[in-house]
Amino acid sequence: QVHLVESGGGLVQAGGSLRLSCAVSGRTFSTHAMGWFRQAPEKEREFVAAIGWNGGTTGYADSVKGRFTISRDNAKSTVYLQMNSLKPEDTAIYYCAIDRNYASNWNSQPTMYDYWGQGTQVTVSS
Asked: Which of 43, 47, 57, 116 could be joined to 52 by an S-S link, Cβ 3.0–4.6 Å?
């Protein structure tokens, strides 16, 4: 069974930084793309960032470009999201997900991901 466990969320002031982690078990991590999504209260879940299976390609939502960086450590089966210059509008529950396809490049569509973590809350105060 595939499990994804996020960590690293919390409360931070605007302009601050957080680093989210997502540890994966039950699937060969190194052969699948990974993504981060977020959902704010009363809003749809939205794409944040994704990284291809070998880390060679990455993609970001326009709202986080230049502030967030996604990376992966295949030896640790872990994907990271470094979030800098945080804004109150970044407040949301952040979810990581693993792509259903083998040797996949990054993808922004939630339907391409078949397993999700439970989420970690990020709150940015003004």
From this structure: 57
